[in-house]
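Input structure tokens:
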């Protein structure tokens, strides 16, 4: 991660990409995990509900278009040789982790936002979700909101973070999004590439920019 953004090293990316390289994965579907203690304070449960606004829904749609345009909330990284027995939205969080433990050595990015295991473990703990709760679209949105705050979503809406910086922060989390260079931050790493154009990304983020 960019040191001037205060982001911790992407341990999840390194672990998942190593597996992806072994499996010859060619699609940008890694979800780049953030560690605790980043530049932005961890989001708390009360804030998650406040974030369920048109702006955050629009932002989730942008990410979903980049990460899982076809399968959406039921997406499973195509490099996973052993898929879950049920669609992800029909599984509990506990079942998701059971599948991960039972299928080592393969990619495990899952859901609309392509959570990888260490990221999923962190955000589940952060929102206080339980093993018996379903990995529903609503739950996936709730978990993804934690990562939106990691990228500085509230600071961006308040006008305290530039659009370019916010977009680059998002692209440091989701490999399918382009940085201001027009390419994925992880371009060519384990087959990653931006799956939407910079022009699209800029125009869509501009719709929720302060004063828009």
């Amino acid at each position: 991660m960019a040191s001037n953004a205060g982001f911790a090293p992407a341990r999840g990316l390194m672990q998942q990409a190593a597996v992806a390289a072994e499996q010859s994965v060619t699609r940008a579907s890694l979800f780049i995990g953030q560690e605790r203690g980043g530049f932005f304070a961890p989001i708390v449960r009360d804030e998650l509900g406040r974030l369920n606004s048109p702006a955050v829904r629009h932002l989730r749609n942008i990410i979903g278009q980049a990460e899982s345009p076809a399968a959406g909330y039921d997406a499973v990284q195509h490099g996973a040789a052993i898929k879950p027995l049920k669609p992800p939205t029909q599984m509990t969080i506990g079942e998701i982790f059971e599948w991960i433990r039972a299928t080592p050595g393969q990619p495990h990015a899952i859901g609309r936002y392509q959570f990888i295991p260490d990221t999923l473990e962190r955000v589940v703990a952060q929102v206080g979700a339980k093993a018996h709760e379903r990995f529903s679209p609503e739950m996936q949105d709730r978990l993804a909101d934690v990562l939106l705050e990691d990228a500085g979503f509230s600071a961006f809406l308040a006008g305290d973070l530039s659009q370019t910086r916010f977009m680059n922060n998002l692209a440091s989390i989701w490999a399918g999004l382009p940085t201001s260079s027009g390419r994925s931050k992880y371009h060519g790493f384990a087959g990653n590439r931006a799956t939407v154009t910079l022009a699209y990304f800029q125009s869509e983020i501009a719709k929720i920019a302060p004063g828009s």
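DSSP finds nine helices and no strands in the chain. The two ends are 29 Å apart (CA to CA).
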